[in-house]
């Protein structure tokens, strides 16, 4: 069965439910978890370099606080279920690639992630990170609804 599962967390209600399902599955099969959070890199335009540097620092600091909170919540819940859980957050403008890279780096044999169905024009333009992981990856993916 599965030995190590990566669960991407984005703070949404559905990703929280998916993380709980991942913890339950890991507990049942004796697997480890990798809780993962990808943050878009900071980009802005400004004619004042000091303002830009300060804004970038503030952005990164806020992202670290949020990532630690999101991942810490999953890790705490995993500990209560006696599941070993690593916490990883990265900066990436392409979360699906970051998810696939981390799954490979951590030797995960499953990615359990939420289905984030976008609707209308937004889905045509952006697509779903889950769909991209399914399309571009070679690690089995369990999609949670």
Automatic annotation (TrEMBL):
<dbReference type="InterPro" id="IPR006015">
    <property type="entry name" value="Universal_stress_UspA"/>
</dbReference>
<dbReference type="InterPro" id="IPR014729">
    <property type="entry name" value="Rossmann-like_a/b/a_fold"/>
</dbReference>
<dbReference type="InterPro" id="IPR006016">
    <property type="entry name" value="UspA"/>
</dbReference>
<feature type="domain" description="UspA">
    <location>
        <begin position="1"/>
        <end position="145"/>
    </location>
</feature>
<dbReference type="Pfam" id="PF00582">
    <property type="entry name" value="Usp"/>
</dbReference>
<protein>
    <submittedName>
        <fullName>Nucleotide-binding universal stress UspA family protein</fullName>
    </submittedName>
</protein>
<comment type="similarity">
    <text>Belongs to the universal stress protein A family.</text>
</comment>
């Amino acid at each position: 069965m599965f030995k190590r599962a990566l669960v991407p967390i984005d703070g949404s209600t559905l990703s929280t439910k998916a993380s709980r399902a991942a913890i339950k599955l890991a507990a049942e099969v004796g697997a480890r978890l990798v809780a993962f959070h990808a943050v878009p890199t900071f980009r802005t335009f400004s004619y004042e370099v000091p303002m830009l540097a300060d804004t970038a620092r503030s952005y990164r600091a806020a992202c670290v606080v949020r990532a630690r909170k999101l991942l810490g919540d999953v890790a705490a819940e995993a500990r209560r279920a006696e599941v070993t859980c690593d916490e990883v957050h990265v900066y990436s403008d392409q979360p699906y690639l970051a998810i696939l890279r981390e799954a490979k780096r951590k030797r995960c044999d499953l990615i359990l992630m939420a289905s984030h169905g976008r609707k209308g024009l937004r889905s045509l333009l952006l697509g779903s990170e889950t769909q991209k992981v399914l399309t571009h990856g070679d690690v089995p993916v369990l999609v949670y609804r």
